[in-house]
Amino acid sequence: MDAFKSLLSGTTSKAHSQRSYTIYRNTDSNQAGMSQVEMKMAEQEAEEENEVSITHDMAALVTKKPRDKRKAMIYLILIALLIFTLAFLFGYLATGSCQSCVDPRAEYLVVSDEPDQSMQDSQKTILYWGDLKLMFQKYLNSEEQIGKTIKRISRTNHPAGSDEINLLAHEIMSYFRKYKLDHTWADSHYVPLHFSNRLNPNSLKFVDRSGAVIEDVIIEDPDIYCPYSTTGNSTGGLVYANYGEKEDFQLLQDQGPSPKGQLVIVRVGKINFAEKVANAEAFGAKGLLIYPDPSDFLLDVQGQRLPRSTAIYGHVHMGTGDPYTPGFPSFNHTQFPPIESSGLPKILAQPISANAAVKLLSALSGPPAPLEWRSPYRLGSNFSDPTRQVQLQVNNYKSSVMINNIFGCIEGQVEPDHYIVIGAQRDSWGPGAAKSGVGTAILLELARTFVAMVKNGFQLRRSLLFVSWDAGEFGSVGATEWLEGYLTMLHLKAAAYISLDNAILGDEKLLAKTSPLLTSLIENIIHQVDSPKRSGQSIYDQVVPQGAKWENHVIRPLSVDSGAYAFTAFGGVPAVEFTFTEGAQTYPFLNTKLDTYERLNQMVQGRLPAVAKSLAEVVGLLIMKLSHDQLLPLDYSCYSEVVLQHITRFNEFASELKSRSLTLQWMYSARGDYMRAANKLKNDIYGSDEKSEKLNRMYNVRIMRVEFYFLSQYVSATDNPFRHILHGRGQHTLTALLDHLTLLRTDPTSFNESIFRKQLALVTWTLQGAANALSGDVWNIDNNL
């Protein structure tokens, strides 16, 4: 100790300065023998090097310079090492060993054990992917709580434009604020919606040839109607057309009776209402009646069946969004041009009950239905009483309604301007337990869970956007109007969309309507979530038979009636919609006023909360991968194979094309350029510095826009909203090109070479544009033009 004091008090003369260490001791009368020592270093200029500044009363305390200089140097080195070691340990403890901070591609991150303290002040641990899943499961509410939320949301009817739906909007907004999401807001639109006319309800009658009423065919629910049906009345014979698919109408046209100029009756199923009406219109029908056939709803739900007096609701717009402002957002200040969607029908459409259908069908004459239709009825178009005809009157009206989409956001830390969007329809024609209740409950639960995870250290790389959509029953109106409002920027911002609509219609199998970009990620996720029905099995093992190709049992193409469709086909954002179903059987109460919590719970043998929680886990793990991984886990190379599967079907027409001096060479070449661009991007990523945030962001932007590349830039968004050449609708798509080419065999006189060349150019240059965009900068594009 004496040597240490001597070292502190020693002075060393320098040419330009002198340092002196002065120790001050303050005596405390209450603590005998105890003293406080202070060290003071004074630095003096060269001209003062011979002076020693010592106060008179402290002069006796100055120690002398040590005589052993070697010993002093040893102590100096030891002290320096001690200071260095302490500084290193302090720095290590202050910064922690956060591998995910230096390598965001790693599947682990640092979290705090004490959520109320800052990350710098709390103890940290490394969390691997398995631990992260446990963390998500820890903060996810119990099955009982999820069930209560579903029951509360579906406690009453809440159609778009009603007071009930506006109250539910306020309730969801209050939950987002209660959970303390970073941002919460509402997005409002004014849209014209169709409603049934209670003062003058729709009607169906038997009339004679002069138009006099013979008998009313009772429509047992006066509120039932098809939004966007044309209005007026139509009278004629009646033709039975099975499910109303194209093949059904083609058979009638070829073998009779022809549907042209007649009313047609079809049963629910196979395709949606809008497609049925579009097919009927294409074959010349004057109107369409749609009924639920009891043979399609044999499922007994704890002794309950769909009552024969119940009709099923459904809109008939062949598209999504507000059909009176196609391509434009329905903002209040916009002066809309006088245009309508090409998907609006020009014929009448009306749902009817099984009771009403049997009264009509049992009176038909004509040939019996084909055996493959498995129907006991005759085809019509006349009735057993030749004087009878059917008259349909539709009196729906249009009214402007303000709809509200509710948003809540959790900001990402690295790429906050890139979003993962999770949405659910909020409105429903009836209580809507399956239609909107489950989806909205899972939406709220996921928002709450991820806020809790973030508070406990989970670091989102990208932002999460939770959205409750309005007017979904009218064809995803709320979601599509939002897309239209931000069409120029969403492909730069939204990395993926996850729809929670129609989430649970059973518990036997999980289906995913999805963009191909998400397929491989979905496979990975469903391997990791336990089946809600079979203990000890994953969802993958439950759904996919051993040795079978899993895509055939899980993956379905995006369809126009899916809440995810507009995001991909219109917005160019990869999207997915998950649904638990009963396979071949159908949940009978969907789109009826009988869609209650109790019936849906009975449908899944009392396991509704468990199935909902399992689906929440699937979506939650998908969100974690999309929001946390350093590189977006989207399989951009998949489109090379998807396009190849489409265009190989063109090969069988090689001889017909050659005879007309037509070639598909450049379309094949464009597909090859895309394949090469995808492979090059993959190699560039693997060979790059994974710690470079500049490179990572550049790669993510290119990956995120792949879906957008497949939107045709050569057609108008107002004339052809669904511009995607694979998932869209219109003359610019691969499907339209193949259908036109097929005419060379089925109807050569209808083949138009000029139109075909234009279609081929649209497809080819969209593919080539996708290949060029994926290549990156213009100096990286390498194709053989």
Automatic annotation (TrEMBL):
It comes from Microcaecilia unicolor. It is found in: Cell membrane. It comes from the Eukaryota. This is Transferrin receptor protein 2. It is a single-pass type II membrane protein. Gene3D superfamilies: 3.50.30.30, Transferrin receptor-like, dimerisation domain, Zn peptidases. Its main location: membrane. Pfam families: PA (PF02225), Peptidase_M28 (PF04389). Belongs to the peptidase M28 family. M28B subfamily. GO terms for molecular function: transferrin receptor activity.
